[in-house]
UniProtKB/TrEMBL annotation:
The protein's name: Glyoxal reductase
Residue positions binding substrate: 112
Lineage, uppermost ranks: Bacteria, Bacillati, Bacillota, Bacilli, Lactobacillales
EC category: oxidoreductase
PANTHER family: 2,5-DIKETO-D-GLUCONIC ACID REDUCTASE, NADP-DEPENDENT OXIDOREDUCTASE DOMAIN-CONTAINING PROTEIN
Pfam families associated with the record: Aldo_ket_red
Gene: yvgN
E.C. code: 1.1.1.-, 1.1.1.283
Species per Swiss-Prot/TrEMBL record: Limosilactobacillus coleohominis 101-4-CHN
Record carries keyword Heme: no
InterPro entries: AKR, Aldo/ket_reductase_CS, NAD(P)_OxRdtase_dom_sf, NADP_OxRdtase_dom
Residues flagged as site, Lowers pKa of active site Tyr: 79
């Protein structure tokens, strides 16, 4: 498909439309998030990504109100934190997020991380299935327009599908130069999930933006390294979620639709390793 700008719509497997770039809010403190989200909407973002664990949903909600845009024109995502897994607590957690955001529905709600066997042994599968059953019911009730996953690798999705009635629409995973997840992306896309990239610039404190290979490619296209990262994500059919609290960078991160990386450049970027970022293995995390 042809992407013209950050609000070119993609279609999820349930027909819901989603702007092809989202604005991230991880590590945006409560006292900054209201202004940052209002600025991002002013810059042109219509897709906002937050999570209960970011501790900023109230401020994100105020920023959305300040922007004065019709709610229907916005696409708002939040995520269920790990301590709230399970049928009853998932239902309560969604309502809590809606209350904090001051919204009566979400466009997308994600399970933030799969329960893993390292922490839950044989119970992990049951816990994920119960959480998903609550997500399915809330979807049927119309409180969420789409439901999905985050940090689920293809084997977690396959396991969930053994009991799921509704196929997840989205999987949001860590994708940036140095941590490309190339094979996983292909598998998830083959399962008809839209893959979203968190930390598409490597996240705070990584060395992605200083990488020489990326700098050379960026110079060739008269673009910044951040723009090259976002283009590399987009050209894989993945939806990037860049975060910045600075208006000039918010703007820069919308401007990557006027150039194309060659197949060779795509390969070169995908082959980079060890540039920092969280590089978290969902089966190994302790949270
Ligand atoms: N599902 C998950 O488990 C998960 C995990 C992490 C993140 N996420 C989501 O994904 C979003 C993006 O990830 P992220 O925030 O970790 O990292 P990111 O977007 O890859 O990088 C953000 C960092 O890059 C800086 N930056 C942004 N644009 C820049 C530019 N054009 N030039 C130079 N520096 C730039 C930002 O600084 P300034 O803000 O100071 O400009 C910030 O330090 C999050 O905000 C969140 O919504 C999800």
């Amino acid at each position: 498909m042809e992407f013209k700008n950050i609000n070119t719509m993609r279609k999820l497997n349930n027909g819901v439309k989603i702007p092809c770039v989202g604005y991230g809010t991880f590590r945006t403190p409560e006292d900054v998030a209201e202004r940052a989200v209002a600025d991002a909407i002013e810059v042109g973002y219509r897709h906002i990504d937050t999570a209960a664990v970011y501790g900023n949903e109230e401020a994100v909600g105020r920023g959305i109100k300040d922007a004065g845009i019709n709610r229907k024109e916005l696409f708002i995502t939040s995520k269920l934190w790990n301590t709230e897994r399970g049928y009853a607590s998932t239902k309560k957690a969604l309502q809590d997020s809606l209350d904090r955001l001051g919204l009566d529905y979400l466009d997308l709600y994600l399970i933030h991380w799969p329960a893993n066997e390292k922490q839950f042994s044989a119970d992990a599968k049951r816990l994920n299935a119960e959480t998903w059953r609550a997500m399915e019911e809330m979807y049927h009730e119309g409180k969420i327009r789409a439901i999905g996953l985050s940090n689920f690798m293809p084997h977690h999705v396959a396991e969930l599908m053994e009991t799921a009635e509704i196929k997840p629409m989205v999987d949001q995973i860590e994708v940036h130069p140095g941590w490309p997840h190339t094979e996983e992306i292909k598998k998830l896309q083959a399962m008809d999930l839209l893959v979203e990239a968190w930390a598409p610039l490597g996240g705070q404190g990584s060395s992605v933006l200083e990488n020489e290979t990326l700098q050379q490619i960026a110079a060739r296209h008269h673009k910044s390294v951040a723009q090259v990262c976002l283009r590399w994500v987009l050209q894989q059919g993945v939806l990037p979620l860049p975060k910045s609290v600075h208006v000039s960078r918010m703007q820069q991160n919308t401007d990557f639709f006027d150039f194309e990386l060659t197949p060779d450049e795509m390969k070169q970027i995908s082959a980079l390793r060890d540039l920092g970022g969280q590089c978290a293995d969902p089966d190994e995390v302790d949270y």
